[in-house]
Amino acid sequence: MNDESIVRLDFGDKECQIFAYESPLPPDMSPQYEKLELSALSKGQISALYQQIPSMVAANTLKDAYYVAKWPEGVPHKLVKFADDSGYMSTVKGQGGKFAGHAHFQPLSTQAVVMMGFAALSVVTSQYFLAEINQKMTRITQSLDQILAFLYGDKKAELLSELSFVKYAYENFASIMAHSEQRAATIQSIQGARKTAIQDVEFYFNDLHTTVQGAKTGDIEKSVEKAFQIRQCLDLSIQLYMTANLLEVYYAQNYDSDYLKYVENDVKSYIGKYEKQLIANFNALKMAISAFKPKIGQKVDTEALASSVSKATAYLMDNECGELEDKFVTSLYSAEKAVEYCIAPDGTLYMKKMA
């Protein structure tokens, strides 16, 4: 493919390159591409975008060809906002990179259809990265029955409520992003979920400390059981906090570098605190087990208790949260990643796998 066959659209801070797909294998058979799941709305917008592409590229392009839309520096996060607003001025460079004028994207115009198609690509990209990290949120993705098995106390209803909302915001991301008023209300609720998650983290840490202290003089078996139960609640609260932070960034499409750095540092700080306090409390629990003296006639398998606590401590010290934290940071800066799509004539969308 030569440079003259590429059409470039300048969106201010980012450039989109559009050209005909050239490969002996169609994208659905190529190991380089993966098919993306699209909502009916997104597929309709991308299909409409496809109808406009032939007029941009070389006249000898085959009918019903596949087209590639490539963003070397990432999809501009402004696209969703511009699709909502009155328009956006973009420079269009034709074959050979020559200036071909301006396309003023106005509602109900051909250019507006193009803008909405690109905005749909932005939403799909965000949804892809959200799905990537959601797979790592092992507590949040558990079934309701599994979560109910370890949640307890006054925080149970509160945490379940926020968890249910965050799942709703994740599952309906593409649809809600298409409606600005609903998007604004959702962001506000996500901020509330983030606050609740932090409050719950602090509550469960205090409860864990109290439980470990009580293990020195109380029922050691019940204390160990309670400590593991609290640890599950802490896992859920931390993952809820991370997910809420990401959802707020994605819904607001706020990729300001200073803001992203703040979010990154804040989440890393809480993860670091989480790991240190868990390790400290489980080490204290292990010491309580070692010092435990059963009463006459009391049978307690202290070796089994100590083994389970030691395994949990070793798991934490092996940087259990490291992979999840790395995935969070990757998703946080997803808008800056180079991304390449292949659009089929029927609006089916394929995304080139990232290295």
Brief digest:
This protein is α+β, with helices and mostly antiparallel strands.
What are the main properties of this structure?
elongated; 355 residues; alpha+beta; 11% strand; eight-stranded antiparallel sheet; single chain; 8 strands
Helix tally equals: 11
Please summarize the sheet with the most strands: 8 strands, antiparallel
Q: What share of residues are in beta strands?
A: 5-15%
Shape: elongated
Compute the gyration radius: what is it? 26 Å
Q: Look at the structure and give the mean pLDDT.
A: 83
Task: Describe this entry's structure for a reader.
Helix content is 57%, strand content 11%. The protein contains eleven helices and eight strands. It has an eight-stranded antiparallel beta sheet, covered by helices on one side. A hairpin with a 5-residue loop joins strand 7 (339-343) and strand 8 (349-352). The chain is elongated. The two termini are 22 Å apart.
Task: Give me the secondary-structure topology.
Layout: E1 7-10, E2 15-20, E3 33-35, H1 40-52, E4 67-71, H2 79-84, E5 88-93, E6 99-105, H3 110-134, H4 144-148, H5 155-171, H6 173-177, H7 180-215, H8 220-252, H9 257-291, H10 302-317, H11 322-332, E7 339-343, E8 349-352
Antiparallel strand pairs: 1-2, 1-5, 2-4, 3-8, 4-7, 5-6, 7-8
Helix pairs in contact: 1-3, 3-11, 5-7, 5-8, 7-8, 7-9, 8-9, 9-10, 9-11
